[in-house]
Fold this protein.
Amino acid sequence: MQRICSLNFENNQDYSLRLLLHQDMEPIRRWRNSQIDILRQSSHLSHQEQEAYWKEVVAPSYQMNHPDQLLVAFLEGSQLIGYGGITHIDWERKEGEVSFLLNPEEIESSKNYRKKFGIFLELIKTAAFDKLNLIRLFTETYDIRPDHISELEARGFQLKKRLTDAIEVRGRKVDALIHEYIADER
């Protein structure tokens, strides 16, 4: 396995993935803070917390052969429109959790969101299975995100478990859905 920093990602015509750059951290912090309800994040991130995360977690992971996560920028042309990756990587079991967050300005319609999320899923599956040699991807999604769930399922992710009343969002209990995708199902 090569170091993460030397990975080359597959791209499609208009969209691509690349490793995160330091300059991506501030827009990502703002996006995370504005969409906190759909994330497993309990409080807003400060600039200092985001900077520490870059220095202590993200940047060092690029020099590892088997980091705990692979975070990538999602670009349309050369414009950063989202980010995500594979987190909680278990190299022994060859699996990891897909994460994805789109710039809120890009979420103009459910059709647009689904299109961009679908493209991201195809690119991240290629990275996971062809570059990292993983065999299983999974996701955890709150059931208040029907477009996200529909696109996961349209791209071959199968619902494996429903965690009833897993978390409180905006004053009400919501379920968390666990989906998975196995490499040989491609």
Observations:
- The chain has a mean pLDDT of 89.
- The beta strands are 15-19, 70-76, 79-90, 95-102, 136-142, 158-169, 172-182.
- Residues 83 and 101 are 6 Å apart (CA to CA).
